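help with this record:
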Amino acid sequence: MKVNKVKISEVKTNPKNPRLIKDDKFRKLVKSIQEFPQMLELRPIVVDENNIVLGGNMRLKACKEAGLKEVYIVKADNLTELQKDEFIVKDNVGFGEWDWDMLANEWDSERLNYWGLEVPIFSNDINLDDFFQENNQPNEKEKTFDIILEYTEEEYHEVIELFEKKSGSREKIVLDLLKNT
């Protein structure tokens, strides 16, 4: 498929687009376009035969906010209506996962954050025995765990399962308390 550069006014947002980027994340997207506009040619906006966006609605909105007059597009003009709908959803589904160990050990977390990747904050050396003693729980042999303080709902359940398999329910209580704070 051929990448074309067109006037931004020729490209139409898709009223059926179910994906949004708002507030701080949208401002980060605008900033990333202003700082690295070459990426737009490498990842053009996908449009149908009527120049309606199938993939890249939020990038188009951010390009307009950044004051761009032209954008790069790729035309997908041989799709059925069902295929267009499927593309819209599949283009926004995240199938992969991040390798957090690699990111922590081989990448600069401040730079990752600046680029828009929300890096979880890890807190080391939380003494769970001190926590339980302060909260009238039985004092057990001292253990220290790394606990994720910011996590998605899915990550939370994965961590709970891991801790329950390894250590029982004490860690689950701490994570439940942290989740509700």
User: Anything to note?
Assistant: Residues 120-179 form one domain. Strands lie at 3-7, 45-47, 53-55, 70-75, 122-127, 144-148. The longest strand covers residues 70-75. The radius of gyration is 23 Å.
